Amino acid sequence: MDQEIQLHTTPTPQPPSSTSPTTKPQTKTNLTLLPLIFIIYFQVSGGPYGAENTVHAAGPLLSLAGFLLIPFLCSLPEALITSELTSAFSSSDSGFVLWALQAFNSPFTASFTGFLKLLSSTINCATFPNLCSDYLSSTFPSLTSGAHRSLFITLLILLLSFINFTGLTVVGYFAIALGIISLLPFVLMTFMASPAVVPARWTAVRKKVDWGLYLNTLFWNLNYWDNASTLAGEVQDPQRTFPVAMLVAGVLTCVSYFVPLLAVTGALAVSDDQWSDGFFADAAGMIGGKWLKIWTQAGAVLSAIGLYEAQLSSNTFQLLGMAELGLLPKALSKRSKWFNTPWLSILVSTLITLTISFLSFSDIIAAANFLYSLGMLIEFAAFIRLRIKLPELKRPYKVPMGIAGVVSMCTVPSVILVFLMVVSGWRVWLLSVALMFMAVGLYFCMVFCRSKGCFKFSTDVSLEVNSVEGLKVNHVNL
């Protein structure tokens, strides 16, 4: 098997002909800045829903400190790397898969990275219907467990996947409305709680800190910044739009977590044990009454919808991008005639999400974090490798650091990622290792299918790279 990627340079790159078989079809959605901001916001956060376990695991002081520090230690490096590499490789939906491909000249590494991130993201999708059930269970006790909960989660996943099928433009503008409506109860809760705040309550620390739950919850609420890179081919003027969208979404994310936590932990004298999934709705009832509790629960449902739609959009366009690179069957790049969406990719992502939706909330978070952490370690290495390998690559946005600076920037989050992987429980390790072997197996399955002609693959894909020399990925030989 030829493991090399055929690369060539052209002194004066010419624009591709509209009739060329190697030209990517002009199917861009042309997402603009505001919808992209809220799609990124929902890919990462969607509001403070789900952050309660940090207080449960460690108490108010460490919870607040975590939402102040982790954005700078982990989120900021991820966002900066995504901004730089997306601006450099802006014509493809394959995002971080193409980064790994260019950095290491290895289809296997690119495929492995892609499958790790895809499995992580689809596992992550399963948390949102679960979170929605948790918030509604106080009003509808039948959703707490059993057949009713399972049926609700299944139907919700299918419904939300169908909404995604209607198009990325719908998802983008829908995300704006969902973001505003779901955050409004927290704005009201914060103002209503302010007069009752006792600053001394912020200094409390749980006697026995559950570091695994604490860090996994923090990380789950503040990661997946790179997922937006798989939408680069659908964004209007991505070289300028992405860095601005990342900055605004980052500020919005940090504020939406820290401020409500600051207000509620300071205003309510409750046990840390009460801070479990869905407690923000109970806190809203204590602070503002039943009407605010119901609004917060409704906001959680809307936030879950936005989270699922944004995450599924990233997954499906990643599959589309990998299919265009020739790493997956060409059928995954086909779009619906009605909505211009990759319908088969949506179906695949939905089926994976359904198969793991029975796991407990904490197990799902930990497994998703484990796979995501391994994928991010490869991305950090690819980022540094590309700085060394392609110093002349045109980067419309560039992190203002040299090699030593970017290595230092990547070191701290890498240490945190490794720690998260080490402290994972045996069930998470077992599931994650099984999924890693699945990712390896999927690559060799594609090699076999391609050699036997089982599926059609894109074997002559011309993806322009924004380089001084006109560097191109011509096609991938598995």
From TrEMBL:
It is a multi-pass membrane protein. Keywords: Cell membrane, Membrane, Symport, Transmembrane, Transmembrane helix, Transport. The chain crosses the membrane at residues 57-76, 150-167, 173-197, 245-270, 343-361, 367-388, 400-422, 428-449. Signal peptide: none annotated. Residues 1-27 are annotated as: Disordered. The keyword Membrane applies. It is found in: Cell membrane. GO terms for molecular function: polyamine transmembrane transporter activity; symporter activity. One of its GO terms (cellular component) is plasma membrane. PANTHER family: CATIONIC AMINO ACID TRANSPORTER, POLYAMINE TRANSPORTER PUT1. Belongs to the amino acid-polyamine-organocation (APC) superfamily. Polyamine:cation symporter (PHS) (TC 2.A.3.12) family. This is Polyamine transporter PUT1. It comes from Dioscorea cayennensis subsp. rotundata (White Guinea yam). The lineage of its organism: Eukaryota, Viridiplantae, Streptophyta, Embryophyta, Tracheophyta. The gene is LOC120273477.
